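[User] At your convenience, examine this fold.
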Amino acid sequence: MPEAGSWRTGRWRDVPPVQRRTVRFVAVSALAGLVAAGGAVGAAGPWEGGRRVAERDRAAAAGADRAAERPEAGRAARAPRRAPVLVGAGERGAARAGAPDGLAEALGPLLKDAALGDRHSAAVYDAATGERLYGSDEGTAYTPASTVKLATAAAALSALGPDHRVDTTVVADGDGGIVLVGGGDPTLTARDGAGAGPQRPASLRELARSTARALKARGKDRVAVGYDASRYAGPAVHPIGPNENIAPVSALMVDEGRLDDSDRGPAERSTDPVADAAGKFAGLLRDEGVGVEGDVAARRAGDRAERLAAVSSPTVAALVERTLTNSDNDIAEALARQTALASGQEASFEGAAGAVTGRLDGLGLSGAKVADGSGLDRADQVSADLLARLLVRAADPRRPELRPVLTGLPVAGFTGTLRGRYGDEAAGRGLVRAKTGTLTGVNTLAGTVVDAEGRVVTFAFMASGTGDADAAQRALDRLAAKVADCGCRS
C-alpha cells in the first residue's frame, strides 16, 4: 500500500476523470456544509459583507505587504491558492492525461454551438497573474444584460467603500412638522420580522418608533408629516418603461416597491413608491400613538434641519452581494446612483452611467459604454475582455474593497440565479461562480472557476442573437464547465 502522502501528491493526477470530478464535487459540497455550520459559532465573527471583519483587515494588510515586495507593480498580484483537498499542501496537479493542449482546443468547438446565436465572444484570464489564457472576439463590445451589474458593483465599492451604509432619516422641518427623507435605500422594509444581525434591512417600523419617542420627549403627540425624495434627479422610470423587473428608481421606497411579499425576482410594482412609503410611515406613526395632521405631502427638508431619527441600510458590501446573487435590478440602480453622489455627479440615469464609467476608468477598465446600473438597457455595451479583467481586479489582494464582487457571485447548482442550472454539467456544479445575464436574444455569463490544475481563472462568455434562452444558457454553462474540467494550457 503506498504511503498516504505519495498517493495525495502523485496518484491524484492518475485518478480517472469521472472519479476526480466526483471527489471535487463532494469536497466542495462538504465545504459548503462547513460554511453553513459556521452560523452556529457566531463567536468566530463578527461577519460583514460575506467575510469576517478580522479576516478582511488581515487581507488588506497582507495585500499592502505583498505589493511592496512585488517586482512588477503594474502586474496583477497572485491570489492566495485555495487549500487543496486531496493533493499535498501547496501542490498543483499536472494537466490531466488526455486533456486538450489548450483552451482554444477545448472551447472552440463549444463556441460553434448554434444555440449561442450569430455573434458571440469569450475571454479567460488567470486570476493570479492577470494573463489572458484565451480569447475569441474578446475585445468587441456586446450587450451584457445583467453582467453589467459586475461593473456597477465594482464602481460602487470603489467610490463608497464596502462598509458604507445608506441612511433614511426623519428631521424636524422648523414649522413644527417632520419630514421623512429618503437616502436611496431600496431595501428599507415596512414588513415585520426584518431579521437580525448587522446586515438586516433597515426597518420603517423602527424608524417610526424612534421618531415617536423623539416627538413625545418634546411633548408632541400630533404632527404634520412630509416627505423628501429629492436626493435623486431625472426620470424615475427606467428607459424600458414600467416593468415587473424594476420599480421607479426613487430615493424613498420600501421593499423595492413590491406589491406582494416577495423579496426577489419579478413582481408587480408600485407606480409611486415615494408616496406609498410616506403613507406607510404615517400609518406606523399612528400605531406608535402619534397623530398625523392633514395630508402627507412632498416637502423639501432644509439643509440645517434637525435629525430626529434614522435607520441604516446593510453595508455596500452586503448590498453588492445581494445584487449579484439574485440579480437585483432595484439595488443595482441604487448602487449606481450612490456612486454618482459619491463622485459629485447628478443621481440620475445619465449621471450614474457617467460615474460608473469614470470609476471603471480609474480601475484601468476603459472602453465600457454604460447606460444603466442593472443591465436592462440594451444601450449598455461591454466586452468579454473587460468583464473578465474586472474579475481579475476583484481577486487582486491589493484591492480588498472589491472582494464582494467575488463573494456575491452565484454558485453553480446551489445559489441565486445559478441555483437551477448545471444539472447536466457535473464538472461545473459547485465550482463555477458566475453572474448571469439574460435579455431577449442576449445571454451572458461571467465569473470565476478553479480548473483541474487548481488554477483560479476568470471568464466571460457573451452571446447575441440567441433564439432559445434555455438552450443558450446550457451552452454557456457547458463553456464554463469545460474550463472547470480542463487541465488546459493556453
